[in-house]
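Researcher: Next sequence.
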Amino acid sequence: MTFLTDHWLDVLGWGGSALLVYSLLQSRVLRLRVLNLAACLILTVFNWALEVWPMVGMNIVLSVINLWFIVQLVRDRHDEAAFEVLEVGGLDHYLRHVLRVHGADISKFNPDFVHDPHAEDQHAFIIQNGDETVGVVILAVLGDDAHVRLDYVTPRYRDFSPGEFVWRRSGLLAGLGIRRVVTSPSMVAPYYHRVGFRHQNDAWTLEVPS
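Model: Next structure:
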C-alpha cells in the first residue's frame, strides 16, 4: 500500500499505457473503443499531473474521437438502417467463401454445423453493414418451424446481435411462412434472451409474428 501511495503517478502512467496497448489487441470494435477511451482518460490525468500539456491535449482529442465512435456504434447496434439482411442460396459463392474463411471460428460457437449447399429445406441469410459482412444465419425449415443450423457473428461485431435483424425486423421469416424458430442446443454463448427468445428444455424458441 505504501508503494502505491509513494509511486501512484508511475502506476497510473504504466497502467494507462498497458491498457492502451491492450485495447489495440481487441478484435471487437466496440470493446476496442471503450478500452481505448479509458486508457486515454487515464493518460490525460497522468500527463496533467506532470504538466505535459501537448500529451494532455492529444489524449483529450483521442477521448472525444473514441466517445463519438462509441455513441455511433451504440446508436446503430439496433438500427435497421445500419444493417441489411440478404437471403442467398446454399450454393452462393460468397456464402461459401465466408464459411470457409471463418470456418475455425464458426466451429467454436456452432460445433455441430456442417454446411450442405444442396439441402432443399435450407434458407441462408447474410447480414451486412455497408459492404462488410457481420454475420450469417442458416435455417432448416420443416413445415412452419425453422431450426437454426448456424448463427454466426464475425469477431468485430461480437458485441452486437446482428441476428436480431433476421429474427425480428427483416420480415423475412413471416414471409417464408415460418411461425417458430428453434435454436441448436449445442450453440456456445447464445444471446437469444436479449432478442425475444424463450428458453425451453435445452433450446431457445421464438414465436414469429404473422
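Model: The mean pLDDT is 88. The first helix runs from residue 2 to 6.
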